[in-house]
Amino acid sequence: MTESIGHVVVVGGGTAGWLSAAMIAAHHNGHRPDGLRVTLVESSDIPTVGVGEGTWPTMKNTLQKIGIDEKTFFARCHSTFKQGGKFIDWHTGNDDAYYHPFTVPIAYERLDLAPYINDLTHFAPETNFQHHICEAGLGPRSLTDPDFQGPCNYAYHLDAGEFAELLKQHATEKLGVHHLVDTVSNVSLSSDGFIDAITLEQTGKLEGDFFVDCTGFASRLLGQALGVPFKPMDSILFNDRAIAVQAPYPDERSPIPCHTLATAKAAGWIWDIGLTHRRGTGHVFSSDFINEDEAEFTLRQYLDLNESEADSRVIKFSSGHRSCWWKKNCVAVGMSAGFVEPLEATAIMLVELSARFISENLPADRHTMAIMEKRFNQAMAYRWQRIIDFLKLHYMLNDRPEPYWKAHRDPASIPDSLKEDLAVWATRGPQTADFDSALELFPAASYQYVLYGMGFRPDFSSQAWLYDQQRLAQQVFTRNQQLTRQLLDSLPSHRDLIDRWLGQAA
Fold first, then answer.
1. Average pLDDT, stretch 54-68?
2. Residue 415 contacts residue 388 (beta carbons within 8 Å)
3. Which end of the chain is more exposed for a tag (fewer CB within 10 A), N or C?
4. Which pLDDT score is estimated for 307?
5. Distance between CA atoms of residues 109 and 434, nearest Å
6. Which residues does 383 contact at the CB level (< 8 Å), separation at least 6?
7. Are residues 244 and 282 in contact, defined by beta-carbon separation less than 8 angstroms?
């Protein structure tokens, strides 16, 4: 490698690899002769996991940054709109449900509405129209709204395999990314521990100045070559398996939910994601509490499918992350950096955030490499801690009787950082000031939706004098009701919106 950073090598394809390559090339004019050279190497004999079909609203900005228009993205990736998640049976298992919508409460950051709501399990519908939009099966925008905009905040559901193909085509044809199909046989390190080059089985030696490890669970560069250990988090998050099934719709006009369905079961939960042409489903579970055959039976029972109607695949994983994510001139993105279950669709979001940081902070030369390494690792350590805390929050407040759910309530399995937050929130609930870092992944609103949806109720009476704005709160509730009625009357159904928008229906 040279002192200057003129060639970035991304090792591994899939969503993580191609999204990283696209974002780096887009930011650094990879399509120009004088721009940064970006090469992606992927093996033809190493399959990608191919799930990860949910995103966060950050994807809107990402698509715009790399130059993919929304309509192309929908047409190519069987995409649908995602307005949040609906959590079914997580609290008691007796047909309870709550939403974590992407739109923040009315009057957010101006007035905390929670103290003025009698039954806080209804926090989302009382403070936000998006709950009602999702229940009605409506899209988040109208046909006339500009791309990436609408009255409801939204993300997407997508076909991960098709998304990777779209990114590959766009990156190579529009952004100047060089593509090599080959397998890494060796990683060469310099005397000072930097990666000099990788050796490929067919191409031979490929030198680079900076390497992005997108090799999945294997972590071929950061984990294996540079020896960065994996830190397991399975004492906090118990799930270690998923059985995935792609299920058909009853017919081509079947309604498409505009949110992810997450249905709790005895030893895990089932995701259910509606694309335009099929459903992506899977049962995430802990092998300590249920075996694979039982887990698959539970999933097929949920889908009303027998064994011959759809193929299943088992995905084994360990929850956790690397002890650092950037070392020397190598940074891990995607599953090579870490992995947690897909409960809040954090996987692709973390790829986006990592690739954005790398793009915007890629050193011009070796002189500031150590500074960027330090800053990236600090940022990722904070983000991973927040992700693990937030996911654990979904589990630990349950009142279900099964051993799996009881184990999640064990104080020994709850991180100290989350215990501290809950102690503070016991008398006032989450506030925006609790989440004032530029690195926050989930705002206070996200915590409010989950906490209150799971039956958590702060003792607001302990400082009752703080909550004397009943009249203003009632005005906000009334305004929410008005907006809800307007949107229910004006927004199209989710499938109709997509079909008409893409010109597939009259």
1. 96
2. yes
3. C
4. 78
5. 12
6. 350, 353, 439, 441
7. yes
Residue 504 has pLDDT above 90, yes or no: no
Alpha-carbon distance 300 to 491, whole Å?
34
Q: Measured between alpha carbons, how far is 111 from 318 in angstroms, rounded to an integer?
A: 41
Helix/strand/coil for 51: coil
How far is the C-alpha of 315 from the C-alpha of 311, rounded, in Å? 13
Report residue 45's pLDDT band, with 50, 70 and 90 as the boundaries: confident
Prediction pTM value: 0.95
Spatial distance between the Cα atoms of 428 and 256, rounded to a whole number of angstroms: 38
Render the burial of 467-498: b for 16+ CB within 10 Å, e for the rest: beeeeebeebbeebeeebeebeeebbbbbbbb
Which residue, chain included where needed, has tokens 């694309």?
A: 275
Do 154 and 257 contact (CB within 8 A), yes or no?
Answer: no
Whether the per-residue pLDDT at 354 is higher than 90: the answer is yes
User: What value does the mean pLDDT of the chain take?
Assistant: 95
- Using CA atoms, how far apart are residues 472 and 469, in angstroms rounded to an integer? 5
**Distance (Å, whole) CA 30 – CA 22:** 9
Surface-to-core class of residue 212, CB atoms within 10 Å of its CB (0-12 exposed, 13-18 middle, 19+ buried): buried
Mean pLDDT of 473-488: 97
Which pLDDT score, from 0 to 100, does residue 341 have? Answer: 93
Looking at the DSSP bridge assignments, the partners of residue 494 are none
At 225-244, the pLDDT tens digits run 999 999 999 999 999 999 99
Where is pLDDT greater, at 491 or 44?
491
Count CB-CB contacts under 10 A for residue 182.
17
Radius of gyration of the chain (CA): 23
Give the residues across from 262 on adjacent strands.
87, 271
β-sheet with 230-232: strand ranges across? 230-232, 320-322, 338-339
Q: How many CB atoms lie within 10 A of CB 371?
A: 11
Helix axes 14-27, 160-173, angle to 10 degrees: 30
Instruction: Kindly list the structural domains of the chain, giving each domain's residue range(s) and its CATH number in brackets, ordered by start.
Output: 7-53+159-232+322-380 (3.50.50.60)
pLDDT confidence band for 506 (50 / 70 / 90): very low
Tokens for 294, please give them: 């039982």
Taking residues 206-231, what's their average pLDDT?
Answer: 97
The amino acid at 182 = D
Q: How far apart are CA 384 and CA 337, in angstroms?
A: 10
The HSE-up count of residue 247 (CA atoms within 13 Å, CB side) is 26
Q: Which are the catalytic amino acids?
A: 82
